[in-house]
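Field log, afternoon session.

UNIT: design team B
ACTIVITY: writing a sequence onto a fixed backbone
BACKBONE:
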């Protein structure tokens, strides 16, 4: 959460936080503007792995999300609810 209580911006592919503490992870569009994606998902105006599936993104994210959910099942459930609603997958 941000100081105002709002959810920080998230990568619209994998849900990685892209808030003030993670600005180095914000990918750039070809024109140099900030993309809605992280550097792990987006480069040069394209998805790095266009064949990636929602299930693969969730599995990649589980170990990272466990740090704040406390368990693998909770992390998986959180991502299963969130990832399909992101711009790339909606």
């Amino acid at each position: 959460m941000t100081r105002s209580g709002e959810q920080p911006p998230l990568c619209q592919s994998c849900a990685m936080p892209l808030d003030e503490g993670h600005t180095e992870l914000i990918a750039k569009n070809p024109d140099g503007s900030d993309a809605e994606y992280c550097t792990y998902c987006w480069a040069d105006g394209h998805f790095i792995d266009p064949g990636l599936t929602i299930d693969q993104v969730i599995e990649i994210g589980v170990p990272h999300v466990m740090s704040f959910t406390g368990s693998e099942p909770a992390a998986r459930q959180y991502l299963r609810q969130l990832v399909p609603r992101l711009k790339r997958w909606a």
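LOG NOTE: The mean pLDDT is 92.
NEXT ACTIVITY: expression trials, pending approval
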